[in-house]
Amino acid sequence: MKFTQEATACKRSMTRRRLLLLPGICPLMREALAAPTHEPQNLSFPLQAIEGAITPLDLFFVRDHFNEPELSVSAWKLKIDGRVARPAELSLADLLESPTKNLEAVLECAGNTAGGSAVSNAVWEGVPLAYLLRQAGVEPGATMVLLEGADSGRLMQDSPSSPYCRLVPIGKCLQPESLIALKLNDRFLPRRNGFPARALFPGWYAMDSVKWLQRITILRSDDPASGLQASGMNKLYNQIVETAPGNRAVTRLTGILVKSAIAWPPDNWKLPAGGHEIRGFAWTGAGLVNEVQFSSDGGAAWTPAKLELAPKPFRWVRWSCLWRASPGEHVLMSRASDDAGNSQLLKRQVGRKDGYELNFCAPVRCSVQ
Amino acid sequence: MKLFAILLLLGSILAAAECAPSSLGEKETLAKFQELDRRAQSAFERGNYAAAAQQYGEAACLVPRSARAFYGLGIAQAAAGRFPAARKALESAYAILPDNVMPLAMLARVEVAMKDINRLKEVLRLAAQRFPNDAELHSGLARFLAESHFLDLALAESLRFEQTGASDTASAVALAVLENGVGAYEDAIRNAQAVVEQSGVPNAVKASAAGVTGLSYESIGDREQAIKNLTLAIDLAPMQENSYLALAYLYEKGQRFKEAVAILERGRKQMPESVHFLLPLGSNLVWAEQYQAAVDVLNELLRKTPDAWEAYVRLAEAYRNTGRPNLETDTLRKLAQAKPDYPMVQILTARAMLTMYPVDYPAVMLTLAAAEKSAPNDADTFYLRGKAYTATGHAQEAVAAFQRAIELRPMDPSPYYQLGLTYRKLGQAELARQTLSRMEHVKQAANAPRAGQD
Fold first, then answer.
1. Reported pTM
2. C-alpha dihedral over B98, B101, B106, B107, to 10 degrees?
3. Do residues A29 and B183 make contact, with C-beta atoms less than 8 angstroms apart?
4. How far is the alpha carbon of A181 from chain B, nearest alpha carbon, in Å?
5. Is B304:B275 a contact under the CB 8 Å cutoff?
6. What is the rounded distance in angstroms from the CA atom of residue B434 to the CA atom of residue A365?
7. Structural domains of chain B sorted by starting position, each given as residue range(s) with its CATH number in brackets
8. Cβ contact, residue pair A23, B212, below 8 Å
9. In what order do the strands lie in the sheet with A142-153?
10. Average pLDDT for consecutive 10-residue bins of chain A (369 residues)?
């Protein structure tokens, strides 16, 4: 089930807040937007609701595979095992007292539609995964890391019930940006975003950033990741390209492709004629966004948009473009490029047989009177 | 941990290196050490921390393996505000006596004072590794870290305390508060509820636990349980004002303004001197449409605390709703004078001035000029200016002002309406028709269902 939930920010003045000194009163004010549930959730929110560059916590997209687990901070442990010299079971206290790092990064669902809002940008805080792996003493020859969440279920009718898990190359895990994230926008992760801890691989699609993380297993290339295969999870999130009739090339999805989205106006919007500021976001997993262009005629002509902040690795950039709208029907589009030489395509790549990496330019229809 | 071991060794070596060699024999050394120790303690008790540090420093030079001397030196240096020296001395004390918790407990406090979060974490990790079952150490650190606003680390130490298996109701409530703060609502409810249900616990502690339980229930969307628990908190400890404020806030969130008023009035009866009830009470009275009572309460608040800025806005609202634009304007002017950077204060004032009779248009224009200066792109400034121009017969200027308001906020129908009327006044029927038609279009677009994007 897919749906979009409109959210309204709860704005109250600082003076009023100062009077409410009880611990937990501020979380109360922000949690009210989404009813708590244990069912798998699939939430995204209109990008137009985002002011500035940071997605507020209550507008952060959610994609669950299974029911959300309810984890106790007292009992939760993160197990590190496999090809390590010092296997460990870390408590939340251990992670809270470990060195942490803050970074701003975009997270996008691999199946986010063109122009869709299953993408968010936030400030993360967590323990560098490389630090934990160093503490555990990774054995030479280890190549992969199996990350396992506390959420579990069956992917297919005939597959066994299994925790959600992903296999990530150790090289990515050792990158300084890869974290075991504990906080989002300076607050502990909400349950729906993986409380108390999730993996975070900035620059990569979100499926590898396993939520409700409970186990990290270090593997060599010849070690079996049996749970992953038996559950069918290894078949998820692959790029499938038909190279010739009946011939398909399957490769694992990793880095986020360059993409942009129009945040305002929304699709099928009606506007009065005159000047309008078109706004949106652009991001890439490879390098920096270096250009965003805007078209009001379905991609026939393009004009450069203004990037509102200097692009930085992993985070998205907000862009805007002044459009003099004349009466009639218009198809608005945006197109981003990055400094690694990638640009959004106008249409979906020919031969793609999967439903991921939908980074082609999305049309936004607009009626002007 | 390796780094820490190196630092300890280094600290010890450096501490020893600063000493002049001693020629005293064993007995004389002991006697002199005892004398220095006694004088250091005495200086410390008198609050002469620099002198105490001097004496402890000499004692440490005399007996470089004395953990007592280094610990005393660390405490005295910390008390004197010389934190790097305190850190060095305490590291030496720990290196000499690693089985004693005191140097690490004190070192954590020094790192907090130095705001060195990485070193603080390192000390806490070491304390957890060496003294995992020392309940007193972890509960003490948790309390201290919470008081110092290191709430994440306070939670970590509270969890470590819980892991020791020791039980203590105050620590359980503190843990529940922290759990509630980080979003572990079920944990918070479980821990706090256990305290509420425990016999022999003082009512004040039970009330705090019931308060946390209520807040956590609210966070998981169970408002009735939240209200029940906060009501219990009030019944258990009627003199804790936070419970009234939190309960009133929940009623306010649910737009149950009369119930919010009732609970705040109950709190006020218990604690008539507290000013903390007045703003929420005045605000909820306004929203409950009890304007005169709101005026009384808010005026009382402003007499007692003239910098309760939001109270001016609420009071102006109460005056507006009782048809007293002069008082509304005066109130907002007072706010603008006392707090010129209060958001939108000039615009609110100008809007109030436009409802007075007679309207002082030059004063309205001056106020709007001030509003434009502080927020040049606020559409309301131009909208109100357009209205003022229209009312004073400056239709051309009004057109420009409304056009600017539309440019700044194209989806607001109000300036289109005013602009259309102004065009009519100017005899420009076609422009008036087009503008009013656009207004209808904007209204329609604003009410149209928004398409999902995903």
1. 0.81
2. 40
3. no
4. 14
5. yes
6. 23
7. 1-98 (1.25.40.10), 377-454 (1.25.40.10)
8. yes
9. A88-91, A77-82, A213-220, A142-153, A162-169
10. 28 29 32 54 89 93 92 94 97 97 97 95 98 97 96 85 93 98 95 95 97 96 79 84 89 95 90 88 95 97 95 96 94 97 93 93 92
Q: Which pLDDT tens digit goes with each residue over A119-131? A: 999 999 999 999 9
Taking only the tens place, the pLDDT of each residue in B154-167 is: 999 999 999 999 98
- For A110, counting Cβ atoms within 10 Å of its Cβ (0-12 exposed, 13-18 middle, 19+ buried), the class is buried
Amino acid at B236: L
Q: Between chains, do A22 and B276 touch, taking CB under 8 Å as contact? A: no
Gap from B226 CA to chain A (nearest CA, Å):
11
**Which among B207, B196, B253, B252 has a CA at the least distance from the CA of B230?**
B207
What ipTM does this complex have? 0.86
Answer yes or no: are the C-beta atoms of A190 and A184 closer than 8 Å: yes
Burial class (CB in 10 A: 0-12, 13-18, 19+), A102: exposed
Q: Which residues from A are below 8 Å from B177, CB to CB?
A: 23-24
**Sign of the torsion angle spanned by Cα atoms B36, B42, B47, B48:** negative
Give B75: exposed, middle or buried? Use CB within 10 Å, 0-12, 13-18, 19+: buried
Quote the minimal CA–CA distance from B367 to chain A in Å: 23
* DSSP notation for B5-27: HHHHHHHHHHHHHTSPP----HH
In whole angstroms, what is the distance from residue A251 CA to residue B435 CA?
56
User: pLDDT per residue over B369-426, tens digit each?
Assistant: 999 998 898 999 999 999 999 999 999 999 999 999 998 888 889 999 999 999 999 9
The dihedral sign for the CA sequence B212, B218, B222, B225: positive
CB distance A16–B310 less than 8 Å?
yes
The H or E element spanning position B64 is none
The β-bridge relationship of strands A42-44 and A213-220 is: unpaired
H/E stretch holding A302: none
The answer to whether A269 contacts B445, with C-beta atoms less than 8 Å apart, is: yes
